[in-house]
Amino acid sequence: MTETIAFGIGSFVALLSAVYVVRTANLVHAALWLGVTLLATAGLYAMLGASFLAGIQVLLYVGGVMTLMLFAVMITRRHEGLVVPADSTGRTRAAIASVVLFGVLAAAIGATPGLDAPAAAELPAQATTADIGRALVGQHVLAFEVVSFLLLAAVIGAIVIARRRDQEPAAAPVAARATSASEVTP
Amino acid sequence: MTPALTYAAVSVGAPILAAVVLAIVPGLRRRGAPAAFLCILGSVAAFGAAVLMLLDRLGGGAAEVASIPWLKSGGLPIADIGLRADGVSASMLAVVTLVALSVQVFSLGYMKSEEPPAFGRYFTYHALFLFSMNVLVVAPNLLQLFAGWELVGVTSYLLIGFYFKKPSAARAAVKAFWVTKFADMGLLFGLLVLYVATGSFGWNAHLTPGIATAVTLLFFFAVVGKSAQFPLHVWLPDAMEGPTPVSALLHAATMVAAGVYLVVRANPLFEQSETTRTVMLVLGAGTALFAALLALVQTDIKKVLAYSTCSQLGYMVAALGAGSMVGGFFHLTTHAFFKALLFLAAGSAIHAVHSNEIGDMGGLAKKMPLTGGAFIIGALALAGVPGLSGFFSKDLVLESVEGKLGSVPYAALLATAFLTAFYMGRVVFVAFYGKPSAKAAHAHEGDWSMRAPLVVLAALTVVGGAFTGTFTKLHGEEWHVHFGGGPAIAASLGLFGIGAAFVVYGRGPRAEAPAVIAFVDGVARTRIVNRLYEGLFHNVALVVADSLAWVDRYIVDGLINGLGYGVLEAGRRARPIQTGLAPDYVLAVIVGAIGVGLWAVWS
Amino acid sequence: MMLSHCLLLASALFAVGVYGLLTRRQAVAVLLSIELMANAANLCFIAFGHFRGGATGQTFALFSLAITVAEVAIGLALVILLYRSHGDTKVDLARELRQ
Questions:
Q1: Where are the beta strands (DSSP E) in B368-458?
Q2: Which end of chain A has fewer CB atoms within 10 angstroms, the N or the C?
């Protein structure tokens, strides 16, 4: 019973804050509301037995991604204050599209038989952190390596994309030549 | 390969070898003299082979054929290509190669003033022509004959249009080609009917009367074109634009004779159709008379000879229509010699006075005795004066036509004999006797190359009659000399014609032509047959062609262009979907995702 | 709480994210919406992992998380680039490829 209530509260918070994320006019508020959504989701993870991931979620998403978003907002809106101007193009059609999308997904979920088959009492064993670790270096080692490579590439790429060009004309000519092919001239 | 077949092979192979060498090695051709040398060498070889083949065939023996499969359809052979050595091909080959050789030797002197490249081109064409004609003559079946026929058409176009920079010459060559090509449809369709009826292209088939008439009439249509019978005679006078030796070769002896040769070859087929033979008799006699009348009023010596050829071909066609293959063929042979002689002598005269008009000549017999003598001999033979070859061959023709169709054709041919003698007499008296005109004052004989052929051909014209018996025997008939009624009438008409010509023209050209001649001249000047063709061409052929062109341009092309235009339009209309704005693309992705989801749910 | 409830919640979050993706004109706001969508997907992974057993669900949620983080990094670098070139970060400013 408590479970259901907790789940209900968690879902409600997550959904409400998600709606605020996409509707508030203030960009900083939007980022903060996203943080709330992510925290609520982390709570849901914990309820679903994924405590490790709940922790990671809080660390990475809330602490990392959301912070990064706030940085971006600060950097790009220095002189006008932080109020986002109106952004209401196509609200109606967007609403229709998202409602239809939800409807389709719900229909798909409803049409799948045997989704809720095992009752709550017969839940299979939950994975522990140790299980996750073993999976990472065992069954999914390839994906693990690829993702780490991806992260490296993303970091380098982000640096390259966003660095200031006028500050290092002669300092790193090799680096300049190596990346000139991927530059998009503004 | 028997000797006869080897000779046949040489007669076909030597000219084409010369032509191919000259085509491949442009240096030889452009230097002029080497081309003439090679061409004449090939012709000498061909002539020698032809003579040997004739001697071989005179010894009797059945026809010899050597052929290889040529066309195949679905693995089964349809037709062969090869050589046939028999009396018919041997005699024709001898005539063709002799005349060709004489003409080519004559051209050495006549065409001397041409530039070396043109000189070389001329002789290359001659070699090609001789090859084409020989292919036609030695053909073992009608399909190869048709192939040679078409080749002859092409090479004669090249030769007639030799002075292609002159617009009238170019037009004349095209006209010759068109008219004969139009008529060649008859040969083509005739061959198709023959093949469908008998499954082969041979001429020894037995056909039902209807099919025989159809096939032979279609063949005859091609003959009418190639041998310039009425109403497809219009190309022959215009074809005189070519060099005179070319006229001697093509329009005296060989190309126009190809039509007659076709009938001779396919004689077994023609014998099976009474209808076609009647048509031939009527048309041949009619053309003979018609062309003789037109020859009366020409002032260009070559045009006189052209119409004369037309008329004599009418004789041959009439003889063939009357059923005498030998008569027609023998007349072809003698005509080849004396008409070539006449053309070459005329060429010599033209070369001397630099003009074709008989009014510009005069008194040439004194200035150019050899040419004059040659021309006179030729004219006498053409007129049918007893003793010369023309008399004997004409006699054979008249004998075969006598009595047929109520003797109307016979009367026409007799009248033609009179006219022939008259118009030739006119030319002789105006051009070779009387006072020389200003242009003729400095006339003189050509060099040896222009004299030797005249001598040879004149000799053959004189003694040719002696071979009548041999000739008829070669083709399976007996001939008896008889000086009875028919020959007598013809001979006297000829002499009478010469006399009348002397009376009218003995004192040189007349300022006022006699009434009859003026009337004919008036009719001739209307050019009614030519105008008829022009009218047909402009109002029928061009109209049909224009409407078909319209269909092609607006409907067929329109369809394709419309498709292309439609595609471009569709692209242009569809382009605005690509706005270049990211949010629009995102919407598109979401819509697509919804679509996929719907599909997944409902399938 | 049943699997279907979790999935429905995830779908709802995803739909909200789509709404934000289609509506918002500021690049950072669009990235926030994308985060919502990714978060919803992660929720699905975890839910399946919980109700079906095994470590795969959580492992893949981990991978998804890592990938999302990388994507955010690049996305924000592009936002900074956009700001530098156009002075503002409206999404429809990047229209150089448009005819």
A1: none
A2: N
Q: Cα(B487)–Cα(B394) distance, rounded to whole angstroms?
A: 8
ipTM of the complex: 0.90
Provide the 8-state DSSP code for B71: E
Between C22, C92, C99, which is nearest B587 by CB?
A: C22
- Residue position matching structure tokens 């001659």: B126
Which has the closest alpha carbon to B126: B12, B18, B252, B260?
B18
Say whether B579 and C97 touch across the interface (CB within 8 A): no
Residue B204 CA to residue B272 CA, distance in Å, equals 11
Q: Is C38 in the A-facing interface, judged by CB distances under 8 Å?
A: no
Q: With CB atoms and an 8 Å threshold, state whether A84 touches C5.
A: no
Could you tell me the residue ranges of all domains in chain A?
1-102, 126-186
pLDDT of residue A84: 58
Of A166-180, B305-319, B327-341, the least confident: A166-180
pLDDT along chain C (99 residues), means of 10: 89 94 87 94 92 87 94 91 81 72
Rounded mean pLDDT of chain B? 86
Provide the CATH number for the domain formed by A1-102 in this structure: 1.20.120.1200
Supply the pLDDT for residue B297: 84
DSSP designation for A166 = T
Place of tokens 């061009």: B542
Q: What is the mean pLDDT of residues B386-391?
A: 83
3-state SS of B226-243?
HCCCCCCCCHHHHHHHCC
- Residues of B at the A interface, defined by Cβ within 8 angstroms: 583, 587, 590-591, 593-594, 597-598, 600-601
Residue B127 CB burial class (10 angstroms; 0-12, 13-18, ≥19): buried
Token pair 């215009």 is at which residue? B238
- Give φ, ψ of B463 to 5 degrees: -90, -5
User: Measured between CA atoms, how close is B592 to chain A, in angstroms?
Assistant: 10
Q: 3-state class of B444 per DSSP?
A: coil
> How many CA atoms does the CB half-sphere of B480 hold within 13 Å?
3
Task: Please indicate whether, in this complex, the C-beta atoms of C22 and B579 are within 8 angstroms of each other.
Answer: no
> Hey, what are A178's tokens?
């190596």
Residues 6+ away with beta carbon under 8 Å from B488: none
Residue range A52-99, pLDDT digits in tens: 999 999 999 989 888 888 888 888 765 555 565 556 667 888 889 899
Mean pLDDT of B406-416: 87
Amino acid in the structure at residue A97: A
A84 closest CA partner among C26, B277, B413: C26
Q: Which of chain A's residues have a Cβ under 8 Å away from the Cβ of B590?
A: 97, 101
Q: Per the structure block, which two tokens stand in for B202? A: 């041979």
Nearest-angstrom CA–CA distance, A158 and C74: 5
* Neighbour tally for B539: CB within 10 Å: 10
Both tokens assigned to C99:
């005819």
Distance CA B556, CA B187 (A): 32
Chains in contact with A, where contact means 3 or more Cβ–Cβ distances below 8 Å, are: B, C
User: Minimal CA–CA distance to B402: which of B473, B464, B327?
Assistant: B327
A122-136, B207-221, B569-583: range with highest mean pLDDT: B207-221
B270-326 confidence digits (pLDDT tens): 888 888 999 999 999 999 999 998 888 888 899 999 999 999 999 999 999 988 888
Structural domain total, chain C: 1
Q: How many residues are there in chain C?
A: 99
At residue B454, does pLDDT exceed 60? yes
Name which of B583, B587, B597 is nearest A108 (Cβ-Cβ).
B597
Max CA pair span of chain A: 68
Domain limits for position C18: 3-97
Residue A172's pLDDT is 46
Kindly report the number of other CB atoms within 10 A of residue B26's CB atom.
11
Between A22-31, A146-155, A159-168, B457-466, the lowest mean confidence (pLDDT) is in: A159-168
